[in-house]
């Protein structure tokens, strides 16, 4: 297992950097794009170019592994190993010329994330999390923080594409806005998870947002010391089609949980 993990880590790192360079080189230029889904989300030719390179590298080295990728969907035969790939997390930002976008690659073994690689493509920062081995950015260890005063906290908000203006979600978001100093929504969830892991966010509240970028982010936060729980206060693990998650320093878990519960009441 150890030799396998070293190999997959190297390939995931290389693939993320290659994809990130493709997106950064094309940033601010002209490229074809189109809408996908019923809510006007965008996909660009750059998404496909970056994804093609990641999939090529994974398939070349691990032909027996299954892959689920943002644009291509499922490929390969179901088994113990599953890769989740988002080649351009933050496509809408990218299309608008906002430099908040990245690459997210996760490897799961028997539905549990064991490796997460997130590449902040514009800033060229490489985040790596390995199960039970911690999280680093460009080789430097990451650690979540615990701020005492809720009114001074900055919190990330992530919601799924299908949530849109759902009344419960909007009520919760408004409640969070009133409790914390600020609530950030970047439209690039993987970067929010990295902000939490490095201590620049005090927590994340995620409302029904399952995607190919999610599990690398969760592993990143957890390996940086965060508690990751659901809205019932139970530890979150595995894969969930409709996740509702709180992530923060373990000492602030009960505080966050009570705030979320009040917002949902």
Topology:
Layout: H1 2-26, E1 33-36, E2 41-44, H2 45-61, E3 66-69, E4 73-75, E5 81-89, H3 91-95, E6 102-109, E7 112-120, E8 125-130, E9 134-137, E10 140-141, E11 154-159, H4 167-179, E12 182-184, H5 189-197, E13 203-207, H6 214-223, E14 227-230, E15 244-248, H7 253-264
Parallel strand pairs: 3-5, 11-12, 11-13
Antiparallel strand pairs: 1-2, 3-4, 5-6, 6-7, 7-8, 8-9, 9-10, 13-15, 14-15
Quick synopsis:
The chain has seven helices and 15 strands. By secondary structure, the chain is an alpha+beta fold.
DSSP summary, beta strand count: 15
For this structure, the CATH topology of the largest domain is: Fructose-1,6-Bisphosphatase, Chain A, domain 1
Major beta-sheet overview: 8 strands, mixed
- Note the gap between the termini: 46 Å
Under the CATH scheme, which class of the largest domain? Alpha Beta
Helix content: 25-40%
Structural domains: how many: 2
Query: How would you describe the shape?
Result: globular
CATH architecture of the largest domain: 2-Layer Sandwich
Order of helices and strands: HEEHEEEHEEEEEEHEHEHEEH
Mean pLDDT: 94
Unreliable segments of 5+ consecutive residues? none
CATH superfamily of the largest domain: Fructose-1,6-Bisphosphatase, subunit A, domain 1
Beta strand %: 25-35%
Q: Mind telling me the C-alpha Rg?
A: 18 Å
Q: What structural class results from the helix and strand content?
A: alpha+beta
Lateral arrangement of strands in the main beta sheet: 4-3-5-6-7-8-9-10
* Number of discrete helical segments: 7
């Amino acid at each position: 297992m150890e030799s396998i993990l070293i190999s997959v880590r190297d390939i995931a790192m290389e693939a993320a950097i290659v994809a990130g360079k493709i997106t950064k080189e094309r940033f601010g230029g002209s490229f074809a794009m189109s809408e996908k889904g019923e809510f006007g989300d965008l996909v660009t030719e750059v998404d496909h170019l970056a994804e093609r390179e990641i999939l090529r590298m994974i398939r070349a080295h691990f032909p027996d592994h299954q892959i689920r990728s943002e644009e291509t969907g499922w490929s390969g035969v179901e088994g113990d190993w599953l890769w989740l790939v988002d080649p351009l997390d933050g496509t809408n930002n990218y299309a608008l010329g906002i430099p908040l976008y990245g690459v997210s690659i996760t490897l799961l073994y028997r539905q549990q994330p064991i490796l997460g690689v997130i590449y902040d493509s514009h800033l060229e920062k490489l985040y790596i999390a390995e199960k039970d081995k911690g999280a680093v950015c460009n080789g430097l260890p990451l650690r979540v923080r615990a701020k005492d005063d809720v009114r001074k906290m900055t919190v990330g908000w992530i919601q799924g594409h299908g949530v849109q203006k759902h009344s419960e979600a909007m009520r919760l978001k408004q409640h969070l806005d009133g409790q914390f100093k600020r609530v950030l929504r970047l439209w690039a969830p993987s970067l929010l998870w990295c902000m939490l892991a490095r201590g620049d966010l005090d927590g994340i509240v995620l409302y029904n947002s399952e995607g190919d970028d999610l599990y690398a982010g969760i592993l990143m936060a957890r390996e940086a010391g965060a508690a990751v729980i659901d809205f019932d206060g139970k530890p979150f693990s595995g894969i969930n089609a409709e996740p509702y998650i709180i992530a923060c320093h373990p000492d602030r878990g009960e505080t966050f949980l009570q705030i979320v519960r009040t917002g949902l009441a």
